Structure prediction request, 197 residues.
Amino acid sequence: MAQVDMTEIFGEGWCVTLTRRSPTETLHMMGVEPRRQRPVTVEEVTARRDRIVDYEVPVTLLARSLGSVWSLVLELEGYSGWVGTAPEVLETLSSEGGLAGSAMYLPDEQEVLCARDGNVAVGVDPRTGRLWGGKAEAFRPMLNEAGLGRNGDGSWWPGLEELSMAQRAVLALETVLGIRLEQSMLEGPWRGGLSSR
Prediction:
């Protein structure tokens, strides 16, 4: 199965956050009050993003359930920062034995962060393969097994060179969290609202 490429679907700037909480609870923990959550479309957010001139306005978060365990939150308005990449947000989403992670993509910057049980455990730079964080080395074997490693000469392992930076970011997120994203998971209705973060 081909690796999903979110830039083909959402364009050149996005952040996706995955957590083991309901969409309503996840959005609430990311700054969208439950009473302010409503159906939202990607087209609505994209049109709003293209009209924004003040980068201090709140960003829109879109969420959906991925079965009985996972929720996915999508951000397309990163002009004031990505809510899903804030360590304190991931720590909150992963509290009480939970698991949460985010992958962020801009043409000149990519980052993957994953948290377990209230602590950011690992960060991954999809461009260089560099890991950081309190538990980073514990994740190296699984990332290497997924092909996210480099040879002694600095070249990527076979198969990874064909992936875009966006695809590498999503692959790293999937590997650490143990979930596989498919294009069908990104299609259809969303629920969301403006974040207070």
Helices lie at 6-10, 23-29, 42-51, 87-93, 136-145, 165-177. The chain has one domain: 6-189. DSSP finds six helices and nine strands in the chain.
